[in-house]
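Entry 14. Ran structure prediction on the chain below.
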Amino acid sequence: MRVCVWAHTLFVWAGYVTFQVPPLLPSSPFSFISSRLPGGLSLNEHDTIEIDFRSSHPRSFILNLHVDSYIPHEVYQGYIVDVPASDSWATAEIPFASLLLTSHGQVKETQRVLDNPCIVKWGITCADGQDGRFGIDIREVRAVCTDEDYESEE
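Output, structure tokens:
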């Protein structure tokens, strides 16, 4: 199996999401964090993202992949849903084929498969429509090739 690790450090992110905002402020019922990958990261020999994580509260999260594209503001999103609160580590597998293409927070009508990707920024969003605390620890993010018949051109 071909593996490319791009985040191999303990990443801890926690907070509180609320729908109760003061008047005159825009409603923002989500929280996100992202990180740039200097020079980008080519994942053209991979087909799945794996994330080792644990969550302190039962929530759902969105993986955001910003790719090097001639169309600005496009983000591919993968979903990690119904995550239980646990001290144990779990692994989420998100195949490229399951990613949704979005722009400005909206799913695009015309979807394109993420092929020959060069990831320039990645992030996690908590936007599951619930008020309350959230927390996610990420131990590792990696791209893998799950196709057993794949042979590298090297």
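The chain has a mean pLDDT of 84. Will compare against last week's run tomorrow.
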